[in-house]
Each structure stands twice: as structure tokens, then as C-alpha cells.
Design goal:
Elements (H helix, E strand, L loop, with lengths): L1 H45 L4 H18 L7 H14 L4 H9 L2 H10 L3 H14 L3 H9 L2 H7 L3 E2 L1 H4 L2 H10 L3 E3 L11 H10 L1 H8 L3 E12 L2 E11 L4 E7 L7 H17 L8 E6 L4 H8 L6 E7 L4 H18 L2
Parallel strand pairs: 2-7, 5-6, 6-7
Antiparallel strand pairs: 1-7, 3-4, 4-5
């Protein structure tokens, strides 16, 4: 039995080493490719090659280059895109040029075609780097105009009052003001449990949206106290914070009573689930809508770290509001 355990540890370590090396090689190849594309774009720009009269030359250049480098994506369209890529960012900030230099070419083309300012491009490029977004996820965020929402929704939490300075700063960083759940494909009225089930089905995408460091423990996580059962919608562990993170999902707008319920769950997690080398648990309440001042008042006199954030389903605002109203009406009718 011991030999099997040792072997599994060796196998796991070898797999990790190979995957790490492959990721490093792929990253280096991508950076080199983008550098080549940048330099080709610079050359075409400096030689003043224009689409109005240079199409014949670009076609010939593409054919000649592809004969020597058939796998490099040197089509006429791509050569024009390289010229646009250089022209767009040649006078941009160093930070923006660094971001686009490490993104895959397909991501760069998307940002190039779908954004209109350096600020917008920097937002999506840096978020893609930070969150490891796929091209499809990036497209969803751009179409939802997430860069506008990010700056208008204020973060709501009591981390400064309930955590140490370092932990509070870190918790503030990992908590977003808004979460985008467009990958769920919600197009009609949905109940809280169905929302939870969809998130579990697509837990990899949800963890990407939450950010780096989250590990999924389970949904409807059972807690028992005083011969009664309680269930946390979703429970995670954050490796860097070294804390359990409880997430409660709410279909409608924020209600003050949500704070008391989360505070109770955190007390149980702290008492029965937290290990001696872990920090105190943190709670996140996800609502379809919230008012920062309402949350601020509701959090007063509570001493557990709790944050409240909105989520979007990638629907137009009026459709989302109709969805929420319909769901709330159904919940009200079910009480009678």
C-alpha cells in the first residue's frame, strides 16, 4: 500500500512538472509569435503599404512567406491585421503594450476589432491576463460592456472592520463589485436552486469568474447544530487567503436579512469546519441588484467578514429586471 502511495506521489509530481514546462513553452512561443507579428506590422506601416494599392503586393508576400513558414498564419488578412495591430498600439502606454504582447493572437484580434479606446483595450487585456479568459468568455464580457459596469458599481463589504489590514486588503481584491454569469445561457425565469445547479454544472467557468485561488468544496454544504440542519449554497476554499468562502445566491435584489443568515453560517463554519491553521471564513452574497448604502447599514454591528456583490446574466437590463420581477412574483404566490 505504501508503495502505491509513493508511486502516485511520483506520478503526480511528474505530471505537474511536464504540464508546467509545457505551459511555459507555450507562453514563450506565443510571446515570440506576437513579437514577430508586431515587427511585421511595423515594417508594413513604415513602408506605407495601404489597402488601396497594396493588396496585390500583400497577396504575393503572403504566398512567398507561407511557402517557407506554412504554419505561421501569414494569410493576406492576417498581414493586414498585423499592420493594424502595430498602428493601434505603437503610441499606447507601456502597460497596454505589455498586456497585448502576452495575449494569444485570436484574443488580440477580438480586442482590436471590438474596442475603441486604449482604456477599454487595457481593461479587457489586463482582465484576460488576470482571469485566463478564453476567447468566447472575453467576447461575452466585451458585448456586455463590462468595462463600464466595473467603474460604476461600488464594492460593498465590512472587511476593514472584521479582518486584519493585510487580510482585508486581500479580501477586497478578490471580491468583485459585479460578477458576470453569462456563460450560464439564462434566457428565461430561473429559480435560485436552478441558478446554483447551473453554476455547479459549469463550475470551471464559475471559478474563472471568481478569480485565482478558489477551490470548489461543494454545493448545499451541510452544517449541523443543535439537532438542526443548515445548507450553504456553495462553499469554496481560497488558497492564498487560507479561508473558507461561503457563497449565497439570491435571485432578487439585496435584502437586509441576508446578512444575518450569512453571519450565522459563518459562525457555524468557524466553529465546526475551520482548521487550526486557517483564517476565519468569509461570506459573499450574490444578488441580482444591490444598493451600497443599504448594504452598509445592514452590515453594521455584524462582526463576521461579509461582502455583497451583483451578478449579470448578459441580458439587457430591462429583460433582467422583468426576469427578477417574475421570479419574485412566483415566490410570493408560492407562499399562499
Amino acid at each position: 500500500m505504501d508503495k502505491i502511495i509513493v508511486y502516485n506521489e511520483i506520478l503526480s509530481s511528474c505530471i505537474t512538472e511536464i504540464q508546467t514546462a509545457r505551459n511555459a513553452i507555450a507562453k514563450k512561443i506565443n510571446q515570440t509569435t506576437i513579437s514577430v507579428y508586431w515587427n511585421i506590422g511595423k515594417l508594413l506601416s513604415e513602408k506605407s503599404v495601404a489597402e488601396s494599392y497594396g493588396s496585390g503586393m500583400i497577396k504575393k508576400l503572403s504566398n512567398d512567406l507561407k511557402s517557407s513558414f506554412p504554419d505561421m498564419g501569414l494569410s493576406p488578412r492576417n498581414l493586414w491585421d498585423m499592420k493594424k495591430f502595430y498602428g493601434r498600439y505603437k503610441t499606447s502606454s507601456e502597460k497596454l503594450r505589455h498586456c497585448v504582447a502576452v495575449l494569444p493572437w485570436s484574443h488580440n484580434l477580438l480586442i482590436l476589432s471590438k474596442t475603441s479606446s486604449d482604456e477599454e483595450a487595457l481593461f479587457y487585456a489586463s482582465k484576460t491576463m488576470e482571469m485566463a479568459w478564453t476567447r468566447d468568455i472575453l467576447l461575452n464580457y466585451i458585448k456586455a460592456k463590462t468595462h463600464l459596469q466595473e467603474n460604476t458599481i461600488e464594492k460593498s463589504h465590512n472587511f476593514k472592520e472584521t479582518l486584519s489590514e493585510n487580510a482585508a486588503n486581500y479580501a477586497n481584491e478578490i471580491l468583485k463589485s459585479s460578477y458576470n454569469l453569462g456563460f450560464l445561457g439564462v434566457t428565461k425565469s430561473i429559480k435560485e436552486r436552478e441558478l446554483e445547479n447551473r453554476l455547479v454544472e459549469k463550475i470551471k467557468q464559475f471559478i474563472l469568474e471568481l478569480g485565482k485561488g478558489f477551490s470548489f468544496i461543494g454545493n448545499q454544504y451541510r452544517l449541523e447544530y443543535n439537532e438542526k440542519e443548515y445548507f450553504v449554497d456553495m462553499l469554496f476554499f481560497h488558497r492564498d487567503l487560507k479561508s473558507l468562502v461561503a457563497i449565497e445566491l439570491k435571485i432578487g435584489e439585496f435584502q437586509p436579512e441576508y446578512i444575518g443568515k450569512m453571519n450565522f453560517y459563518l459562525t457555524l463554519l468557524d466553529k465546526f469546519e475551520r482548521k487550526t491553521d486557517e483564517n476565519q471564513p468569509i461570506g459573499i452574497i450574490l444578488c441580482a441588484d444591490k444598493n451600497h448604502l443599504d448594504v452598509e447599514i445592514a452590515l453594521q454591528d455584524f462582526h463576521k467578514p461579509i461582502g455583497v456583490a451583483e451578478y449579470q446574466l448578459l441580458l439587457p437590463k430591462n429583460q433582467l429586471e422583468d426576469l427578477i420581477k417574475k421570479e419574485l412574483k412566483q415566490k410570493e404566490n408560492s407562499k399562499f
